[in-house]
Amino acid sequence: MAEPILALRGLSKSFGALKATDDVSLDLRPGEIHALIGPNGAGKSTLIGQIAGSVVPDAGEVWLGGRQITGLSVAARARAGLARSFQVSSLAMEVSARVNVRLAAQGRAGGTYRLWGSASRDSRLAAAAEAALARVGLEARADIPVAELSHGERRLAEMACALALAPRVFLLDEPMAGLGADGTARLTALLDGLRHEAPILLVEHDMDAVFRLADRISVLVYGRVILTGTPDEIRASREVREAYLGEEA
Ligand SMILES: Nc1ncnc2c1ncn2[C@@H]1O[C@H](COP(=O)(O)OP(=O)(O)OP(=O)(O)O)[C@@H](O)[C@H]1O
After folding, report:
1. Confidence check on the interface: ipTM exceeds 0.90, yes or no
2. Tens digit of pLDDT for each residue in 50-82?
3. CB of 46 closer than 6 A to ligand 1?
4. Euclidean distance between the first and the last CA atom of the chain, given in angstroms as a whole number
């Protein structure tokens, strides 16, 4: 079996007496979409925070490509190849998607704004930005201020920013939230192809999207992974149905 690109080992985080995540271990393998599902308050966002570096775990380790990154800052993890997006919009609203995506590409290449970037470097970054915009299908809307884009288009612009980072892993926290049927269909098609560029850890409440996209699903309940399996295995589990899926399964 392929080595995992992202490996979580025994991640725990308590807030006072509440164990938000409790000894969570899971792997993200090359080419896969691994969905993390669970009821409200199960600890999904806390887990994503521990992976991305915004939440400091009480115990446990995060490994990326065979390197332990548990002690690294959010920025250092992003540079190491973790692209987190969604839930909180990170786009600059007053400028275009193209400018946002170019800034993301520039951040990846050299940190902050540089006045005198070399011409070849600039054209490389511009090409990376154009490729990302094309990949999400936003070329025709790329010069409109983000504030004037639809909600679904903003999600695609955020994905283009993440793509411009050429990440090793995508961490997506409820990307379908607030999208209509068209937006969900567009984003589902995009994510479906994206898994081959970098594997995706997907936190999502939209069960149709999860069961359509996921290669494997982990079910988190009260901070613990009660089962990891294929969509069919998750559907067939009585424990999961009782704990979470109810009549939806
Ligand atoms: N900073 C914090 N301080 C105190 N409690 C917190 C904090 N962050 C999260 N919690 C609590 O930890 C538990 C897990 O929350 P978390 O947001 O990780 O769950 P979730 O599975 O992402 O939920 P949802 O599906 O509603 O987004 C909840 O009971 C929440 O109230």
Report:
1. yes
2. 999 999 999 999 999 999 999 999 989 988 999
3. yes
4. 29
Sheet holding 224-229, edge to edge: 82-85, 169-173, 200-203, 33-37, 216-221, 224-229
Scanning the structure block, which residue is given the tokens 């992974």? 225
Atom of ligand 1 nearest to the CA of 55: 1
pTM here? 0.91
Q: Whose CA is nearest to atom 16 of ligand 1?
A: 43
39 Cα nearest atom in ligand 1: 25
CB of 40 shorter than 6 A to ligand 1: yes
Domains and CATH numbers, the chain: 1-81+167-249 (3.40.50.300), 92-166 (no CATH)
Residues 6+ apart with CB under 8 A from 160: 97, 100, 101, 104, 129, 132, 133, 135, 136, 138
